[in-house]
Each structure stands twice: as C-alpha cells, then as structure tokens.
Amino acid sequence: MGQRWWRHPGASRVLRTGHGACPRRVRMPIVLSSAARPAIAGAFATQGFVFISLTTRLPDFSDRWHLSEIELSGLLLMMVLLAGVGSVLAEQLVKRSGSATLLRSGLALLALGVPVLALAPAVGVFVAGMALYGVGLGVVDATSNMQAVALEHRLGRPILPSFHGAWTAGGVVGAALTLLTPNFPLQGAAVLALVPVLALLPVAGAFVQRDHGETLHADAVVVPWRPILLVGAALVIFYMVDTAAATWGPTYLDTTFSTPSGLVALATFPYLVASGVVRLAGDGLVARWGAVLVLRVGALLASAALAVVVFAPTWEVAVVGFTLLGVGVAVIAPLSFSAAARIAGAAGDGLADGGDTPGARQARVDAVIARFNQFNYVGALLGAVLTGVVGAGNLRIGFAVPMVLVLLILPLARAFATGRQTWTSSTPTS
C-alpha cells in the first residue's frame, strides 16, 4: 500500500498520511474544538450575565437620572436599535477579520461601555455609555453565534442549545447577584466590566479561527432565503414570548394579584432557571429525538403554560405557568441559529467538486448568521409592544397573544428538518 490522503471535516486542506493509522496532526481540529468550546460558552455566559445584571438595575438607573417611563423606554429602544447596528457591522467586518477577532472587539466594547454608564457624571454620558454598550451587544450577539455554529459543524453534532444555556446561566447569576445586593451602590455596577475583560484573556479567548481560504465563490452561490426566513419566523416568535415574560411578567404579578412586592421577580427568575436547565440538556434531546419533535412538543407545552398564566387564580399558579413556559421555549432560539447556519452552509453543495471552498462557505454562513440575528431584535420589539398594547387594560389578555402565536411553531418546525439530516456532513465555518 502507498500513501493515503485524508480530509478532516473541519480541515481546510488535505492532510497526507502514511501506512496505518492517521498521525496526530489530523486530530488537531478536535483539540481546537475542545479548547474553543469553553471559550465560546464563556462569551455567551458573559453576555447573559452583564445584560441581566444591567436590566435588573434599570429602576435604579431611572431613579438616579429621574427618567420617566417614556424616557426609559426610549433609551431601551435606542439600545435595541444600536444592537441591530452592531449586528450589521459584524456582518460587514467579518468578511475581512473573522468572527473570532470581532468577538473580542465586541467584548472590549462591553468592557468599555459598562463603566461609562455606571460611573457617568451626567445623563448625557450615561446615554453615551448605553449607546456604546448597545453596539457591543449586537457585535457579541452576532459573532458568538457565528462561533457556536462554526464549532457545531466541526464537531458534527448539536451543541447550540448548551451554548444558549450558558447565556441563561449567566443571566441567572446576574439576576441572583442583583437580588442579593439590593443596597449595593449603583456605581459599583462598573465592576461588571471585569467579566468581559476576563473573557478576553488569551486562555479564555481560544475561539475558533476562520479558514482564510479562497472566498471567490461566496457571492456566486445563492443562499436559499425562503427556508431561512421560515426558521427566522420561529426566532421572532420565541423572542416575542421571551420578551413578554421578561418585560411584563413582573408587572403582571404586581397588578393582577396581591403578590408581595419582593416576589414579583419570580415571574422571570424561575423562567430563566427552567430555560437554562433545558438548554443545557438540549444537546442530548435534539440528538436523540430530532429538532422537529422537540420544537413541537415544546410549543404545545409553552401554549399550555401561557394558558396557566392567563387563567391563573393566584400568583403562585402564575409562577408555575412562567416556569413551565421556560421549559417549553428553551431551545427555539439555539435551534433556529443552528438550522439557519446549516441551510446556508449547504447552499453550495450542488456546485461542481471543489467549486464551494471552505472560505466561500465561511463567508456565506457568517453573513447569514449576522443578518439572521436581526430577527432577535424584531421579536423583542414586537413582544414588548404587542403584550403591552393589547393588555393595556388587562394583562391577562396581553399574555393571550403569545399563548396563541407560539402555536405557529408547530407548522414552522418542518423548516428545521434539514438540520437533522446533515449532522454528518462537513460545513466548516469561521
């Protein structure tokens, strides 16, 4: 027997082997993946921790700067819109620098924006800090998902749910920290900037590096936007439900029931915990049962959970409903990003052999993920507005809206079927 040639699914070039087993060199992509996974999870956890830590302190910031509800809503809208800008910037810049470099840049923006808004001597500086944080949030949001789908495709198995579980875990820690330190000086929130700084350390920042191979064919391949838009519709529905629970849940407990003032946060805290647990277990659930079945069962559970919330006779029953809701919708977002990336990555499979280079796939998938991330902000805005406007006189009616809309996941789940069929295929991304 002569020499043999072997291509690793995550490699950008063919590696030559001699007689017998493949040499150690061909296992390097797996070593990279195992090192990258905790780094990427750390980026997700950092984003969740800082975001929830800040949003749970918004009433304190509002009191400090004497902001009305309309002014505070305007600031939040500004932050969401600038996060969208950050995501668009990531889409454009990733073509030149890669998602690993941009993720580090986004984390640096978070580390800079947080102390600016926390230590601001004037309201204008506070607004500037919020703006800086918003742009960084969008960059981190887009590039962390690019990194996650890149690693998922290199490993060839579903891992997006556990990454989003890391975000939720970070959020739970952030919410718990706020609850445990109610009298902590607001300026002390500046120390939150230490978390993204830690995520920038060389050891923690072992992100997946992009293949700088030829990208000539990236623009020549037409991305199948129709199935991606169907998956995006599911992401919009998730964030509508998620925002309704996070934004209006505490208000619902406060205005609809005689809930003790110190316990209204139970609308969101158990929701986050339940969602985090299911996301961390979601990799195995999806690998065993497939995305379509997991999504449909979750949608039915979520609708039933919201029915418990809407018709709850007491606040305790409503809390149970919010907890079950976290279980039902937990994996919609990660599976949406995963499916969008796989659809985009497979778009060039019909080309002649060698026509779709790893670099072309990287460019296509990165662009799709950055653009796909916009569905996040669309859903968040719609969820906050629809629930509040429809439920202006009675929030029970407001929560009936997501109770019905989440059932749209049942037909949309078919768009996720492609994902389960291609776990063994190679779609390297950056």
UniProtKB/TrEMBL annotation:
The chain crosses the membrane at residues 34-54, 74-94, 106-133, 189-208, 220-241, 261-281, 293-312, 318-337, 375-393, 399-417. Gene3D superfamilies: MFS general substrate transporter like domains. InterPro entries: MFS, MFS_trans_sf, MFS_Transporter. It is found in: Membrane. Its main location: membrane. It is a multi-pass membrane protein. Signal peptide: none annotated. Keywords: Membrane, Transmembrane, Transmembrane helix. Pfam families: MFS_1 (PF07690). PANTHER family: BYPASS OF STOP CODON PROTEIN 6, INNER MEMBRANE PROTEIN YBJJ. This is MFS transporter. It comes from Nocardioides taihuensis.
